[in-house]
Design a protein that fits this description.
By secondary structure, the protein is of the alpha/beta class. It contains eight helices and seven strands, in the order βαβαβαβαβααβααβ. The structure holds nicotinamide-adenine-dinucleotide.
């Protein structure tokens, strides 16, 4: 399904150099949107944007370096977008410390690891949303997607700082939606179950992968493209009455 109104939108996707963030960006460019791929992995994000533009897609991809945990870096992106577009219609707060996590019991997580992960995963979406707020308010009806995780609903072990950060994201979404409703800005959490991307990671062992798939209603694993339809819908005007929600995409693994 195609959401034709996306073609007129300027949408920022953070953490878009790889993985699911790149898939969101690809889908939105395919829909004709102007997509700002923002990531701290500068080289990869530039290559990713160039590849999207080369593929003859309808929209446009623009790379931008950012550290979402830095207020100054978020302000730089806002300044550049103010000059170039004067508005932002969509924001996907997807950047997170995730695939680089080493699983361990929570009592072995160092305070430095905890703090850095929280700065990126929880403070980052707040910082960037705040920096882009004047631009989001300048849109006719902006939509924000905060990326959560169904690891929260599953009580997953081995990365408590990550689970806590994503629980915070869902709570932040609901309150943000109430503070931003008066400006016509919607805010939702897209909460993926386990998604297997091109990036290898240690956060799911082979037996855990099998066990989770067996528990699902749909007995297949998810790839990044399984997440993109909901993102496109939530960013389009077709979802104009949906806000404050946490929506899972997990093949029936858990129920919220
Ligand atoms: N893959 C899964 O199974 C899964 C499941 C549930 C939720 N999620 C969430 O989906 C999102 C994407 O997951 P993924 O598997 O593609 O993750 P990933 O680790 O492969 O990619 C994360 C991206 O964020 C970028 N990033 C990290 N720190 C940053 C910072 N400070 N500033 C800007 N960019 C930064 C990285 O460079 C990378 O491009 C994350 O929010 C993750 O928590 C993933």
């Amino acid at each position: 399904m195609s959401y034709t109104d996306l073609a007129s939108k300027v949408i920022v996707v953070t953490g878009a150099a790889q993985g699911i963030g790149l898939a969101y960006a690809r889908r939105l460019v395919d829909e004709g949107a102007t997509v700002v791929l923002a990531d701290r992995a500068t080289d990869s994000v530039e290559k990713a944007a160039a590849a999207l533009n080369e593929n003859g897609n309808q929209g446009k991809a623009i790379a931008h370096a950012i550290d979402v945990a830095s207020a100054n870096s978020c302000a730089e992106l806002a300044e550049s977008l103010t000059k170039e577009f004067g508005r932002v219609d969509g924001l996907v707060n997807n950047a997170a410390i995730f695939s680089t996590i080493t699983m361990k019991p929570f009592w072995e997580i160092s305070t430095d690891e905890w703090d850095r992960l929280m700065e990126v995963n929880l403070k980052g979406p707040w910082l960037l949303t705040t920096a882009l707020l004047p631009l989001l308010r300048a849109s006719a009806g902006a939509s924000i997607i905060n990326i959560g995780s169904d690891a929260v609903a599953m009580g997953r072990q081995g990365y408590l700082h990550y689970v806590a950060s994503k629980g915070g994201v869902a709570g932040m979404t609901f309150s943000m939606s109430h503070e931003l409703g008066e400006f016509g800005i919607r805010v939702n959490t897209l909460s993926p179950g386990p998604v297997y991307t091109e990036v290898s990671r240690d956060t799911v062992s082979a037996p855990q992968k099998e066990a989770m798939m067996a528990r699902q209603a749909l007995h297949r694993t998810a790839g990044p493209d399984d997440m993109t339809s909901l993102a496109a819908f939530l960013l389009s005007d077709e979802s104009s009455y949906i806000t404050g929600q946490t929506i899972s995409v997990n093949g029936g693994l858990v129920h919220r």
